[in-house]
């Protein structure tokens, strides 16, 4: 059951991050889920210790969701730098 929650929360976080970074048209639902889950993992590893709180996308809570979105945004910004040489 935890993996189903992780996929759903990761998909929503990836979709919101792609809207913020204006990459929604170039990404499909599968890439939204992947970016959201990887962003959540990176966010919990690097951003959560800086902010002083953490969470998990396997059990839905607001802190974990915000960290997942922030991690996905950072991941998309890095992808923009690699692809285009700049951040949008």
UniProtKB/TrEMBL annotation:
It comes from Erythrobacter mangrovi. GO terms for cellular component: plasma membrane. It holds the Pfam family Transgly_assoc. It is a multi-pass membrane protein. Keywords: Cell membrane, Membrane, Transmembrane, Transmembrane helix. It is found in: Cell membrane. The chain crosses the membrane at residues 6-22, 29-50, 62-82. Belongs to the UPF0410 family. It comes from the Bacteria. InterPro entries: Transgly_assoc. Its main location: membrane. The lineage of its organism: Bacteria, Pseudomonadati, Pseudomonadota, Alphaproteobacteria, Sphingomonadales. This is GlsB/YeaQ/YmgE family stress response membrane protein. Signal peptide: none annotated.
């Amino acid at each position: 059951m935890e993996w189903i929650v992780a996929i759903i929360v990761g998909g929503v976080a990836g979709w919101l991050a792609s809207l913020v970074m204006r990459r929604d048209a170039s990404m499909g639902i599968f890439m939204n889920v992947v970016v959201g889950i990887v962003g959540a993992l990176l966010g919990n590893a690097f951003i959560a210790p800086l902010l002083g709180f953490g969470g998990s996308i396997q059990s839905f809570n607001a802190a974990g969701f915000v960290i997942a979105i922030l991690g996905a945004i950072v991941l998309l910004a890095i992808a923009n730098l690699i692809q285009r040489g700049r951040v949008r």
